[in-house]
Hints:
This protein is of the alpha+beta class. The chain has one domain. It has helices at residues 49-57, 98-109, 164-184; strands at 8-13, 19-21, 25-32, 41-43, 63-66, 69-82, 86-93, 114-126, 132-145. Strands 1, 2, 3, 4, 5, 6, 7, 8 and 9 form a nine-stranded mixed sheet that branches.
Amino acid sequence: MEMDTGLEHKFARFGDGLSVTEGAVIEGYASLFGQVDQGGDVVQEGAYAASIRALKQCGQRVKMLWQHDPAQPIGVWDEVREDARGLWVRGRLLDSTQKGREAAALIEAGAIDGLSIGYRTTKAGKTDKGQRLLTELELWEVSLVTFPMLPSARVAAKGDMLTTETVLRELAATLESARLELARR
């Protein structure tokens, strides 16, 4: 029988945002603000701030896991921060672990294309469209996963470089979405 810890998972697929480079360094967005995921949830900007601050004060880090399995840490997140777009992470897959080596190979081959956060909701509300609005989250871990829940982003394998055109298109789409949301209010 499983114990209910209240821990939730939120998946995101990021290609334009997550990449693997030399030394198995990975970086990208683990969560995007203002986007509705397949579970009908929206994460509000600032939702991770208190949790990130509390972890730093205690000298702890967000864990990097394989498929949310606490028995399979595969690396370390060296930097976890919020910016205007979402929750950005940068870390290293540990090539001294079998799963770390496998994860790097699977990302490079395109077989793994997602990140997922493990968190506990501490404050939530509703959007005007009835979706759950996550306003404060206790972030526990960010995992590499097979099946993401936020289909708007994809994982980039080592060597996949963003073109200026791709970045500008993505920025234009984000700004247009924000403009439409503001106009609706």
